[in-house]
Design brief:
The strands form five sheets. Strands 1, 2, 3, 4 and 6 form a five-stranded antiparallel sheet that branches. By secondary structure, this protein is of the alpha+beta class. It is built from 20 helices and 15 strands. α3 runs parallel beside α5, α4 crosses α8 and α11 runs parallel beside α17. Among the domains are: about 130 residues, no CATH class; about 100 residues, Phosphorylase Kinase, domain 1 (2-Layer Sandwich), CATH 3.30.200; about 30 residues; about 70 residues. It starts with a helix and ends with a helix.
Length: about 550
């Protein structure tokens, strides 16, 4: 953001900087380029002792919807941010004071293209949920009497988010430029990706498509499902879907413990199947987004963010999963190295030590610590520090696994995700090594080989034509010869100086024997002058050798 753009949002910028200063980051603001007097009068007041990461979360909550959303998206980057900060950002609450229905009525009427009475026979104007971007209402369709839930985007929220995202991006750039310790995190790039995620979430069409796609792939609708979307009434700002009768997972008191155990199994198996079989999964299945329905099923809500994994990444993840459960640190490091970008130069030995320690701390089944999701978050951070930034969807997967583990333990305190992944892993193994898969790979190999053979004559023909027209250029680059070239140049200069000095000495000696005038102390002045020049050059050579060392 340019300076004049910062001034155009001066009021909001002052609010943001004030909140940051009051949460104990005044010293940080003092190191960046800010207009004088914009925040210095606001000093942090003494308060209860909090950790650095708690203060970051509290500041984000106080700064409003854009920063809450940024924090939630940043919690999906365990490859970049420290593990304690990830866990703290996951606590960010997206519950805000609801706005009056009359403010949202205009959005509904504009997107539906008619009065509400023409579409709904009943409409409860009291929202059942209010988040940063939208509010949710219950209603009943006039056409067929179905009970529906309506998610309505708040008016003007896009402009508010864009302003705050611009200011956050400018602040991230300033921190990256002026504070060396923060540069390894590459805050501008991380904030840019998070901003794109927030912008995507503003389009409810993405959420509708994700819900429908999940229901298409879901093999067990009798166990888990997503609410069916009513597309003819949904738009980019309004999402109309069937109403789910039930309660969030965190409110499971009236449900028998046997049923809770079954629900935990169904939820875990569904998510693992989403990740490893379908390659499409709910990226944030926390306890507020998973409902227990009145008919004993689980419903996944809020599909604004979903992860996608290719076949290669799914198979690598299955291997990664097995290696983590078996505490095979060497295998985990090898899988990560195989997925690393070509320019990455990781220290595999250091990685293996850190991976081993993480597995012992967070995935120790003997000590009762089966925290697979937490271990994956730490592993991704280890890989990121070594320059191995895996797919963003891997980060989403780790966060989803952590969330579903927490949901499982909410339903069943003895829940162990490891026990419910074996059947899915066996299915992945059969898929990878089935005759159909082997035949497909063989066909791909033959097709690529035949394509290469087919193109080879044409490539050879082009090479010969270029040779015929003297149009072939070969670029050769030598590396590591700079030191040899420098040594030869220094040696040549020294030899030239030695020849000059020797010539001057010989010439001056010949002149001394002639006795020509003028003379100084009985010796020819010209000869003495030659000796003086020779001595000066000789001392210079000796001083230069001593100054640069013998290697010069």
């Amino acid at each position: 953001m340019k300076p004049f753009e910062l001034l155009s949002h001066a009021v909001r910028a002052k609010e943001i900087l004030t909140v940051i200063a009051r949460h104990g980051f005044a010293d940080l603001l003092g190191q960046i380029d800010l207009p004088a007097g914009i925040w210095q009068r606001f000093v942090p007041q003494p308060g209860p002792p909090r950790t650095l990461y708690e203060r970051i979360r509290l500041a984000a909550e106080q700064l409003g919807p854009a920063f809450v959303k940024l924090g939630q998206f940043l919690s999906m980057r365990p490859d970049v941010l420290p593990h304690p900060l990830i866990l703290e950002l996951r606590k960010l609450q997206d519950q805000v004071t609801p706005r009056p229905f009359e403010e949202l009525r205009s959005v509904l009427v504009e997107d539906l293209g008619c009065r509400l009475e023409e579409v709904f026979s009943e409409f409860d104007e009291t929202p059942i949920a209010s988040a940063s971007l939208a509010q949710v209402y219950f209603a009943r369709l006039r056409s067929d009497g179905r009970a529906v839930a309506i998610k309505v985007q708040k008016p003007g929220i896009r402009r508010i988010l864009e302003t705050d995202l611009d200011l956050a991006s400018w602040l991230a750039g300033q921190l990256h430029q002026h504070i060396t310790a923060l540069r390894p995190y590459d805050l501008p790039a991380v904030l840019a990706e998070a901003s794109r995620g927030v912008q995507r979430e503003l389009d409810f069409g993405n959420e509708a498509r994700n819900q429908e796609y999940f229901n298409t792939l879901n093999p067990h609708p009798d166990r888990v499902f997503a609410p069916r979307v009513i597309h003819e009434l949904s738009t980019g700002r309004v999402l109309v879907m069937e109403r789910v009768n039930g309660h969030p997972v965190r409110e499971t008191t009236p449900v028998p413990s046997e049923q809770l155990h079954t629900l935990a199994i169904h939820g875990a198996e569904s998510l693992i199947r989403q990740v490893l079989i379908a390659g499409f999964f709910h990226a944030d299945p926390h306890s507020g987004n998973v409902f227990v329905t009145d008919d004993g099923r689980l419903s996944f809500l809020d599909w604004g963010l979903a992860g996608h994994l290719t076949r290669r990444y799914r198979y690598a993840l299955a291997d990664f999963w097995v290696a983590a459960v078996e505490h095979d640190a060497e295998r985990i490091v090898q899988i990560a190295a195989d997925l690393a970008p070509p320019d990455a130069r990781p220290d595999l030995r250091t990685m293996e030590k850190e991976v081993t320690l993480t597995l012992r701390e967070d995935l120790n089944f003997d000590l009762g610590r089966p925290q697979l999701g937490r271990a994956m978050l730490k592993l991704l951070f280890i890989f990121g520090r070594q320059g191995i930034h895996l797919s963003r969807d891997y980060c989403l997967m780790a966060k989803a696994v952590l969330a579903i583990e927490e949901v499982g333990r909410t339903l069943d305190p003895q829940f162990d995700l490891r026990a419910h992944t074996r059947s899915v892993l066996r299915e992945v193994y059969r898929e990878r090594h089935s005759p159909r898969t082997i035949l497909r790979r063989t066909q791909e190999l033959l097709r690529n080989s035949l394509t290469g053979l087919h193109e080879l004559p044409a490539e050879l023909h082009r090479l010969v034509r270029r040779l015929e027209h003297d149009n072939l250029t070969v670029n050769l680059q030598h590396h590591g010869l700079q030191e040899i070239d420098e040594a030869m140049r220094v040696a040549a200069n020294r030899i030239a100086l030695g020849v000059v000095i020797g010539s001057l000495i010989i010439g001056s000696s010949l002149i001394i024997t002639t006795g020509i005038e003028p003379s100084i102390l009985g010796y020819p002045a010209l000869g003495l002058f030659g000796y003086l020049i020779s001595a000066m050059l000789g001392f210079y050579v000796i001083w230069d050798i001593i100054r640069h060392g013998r290697h010069k």
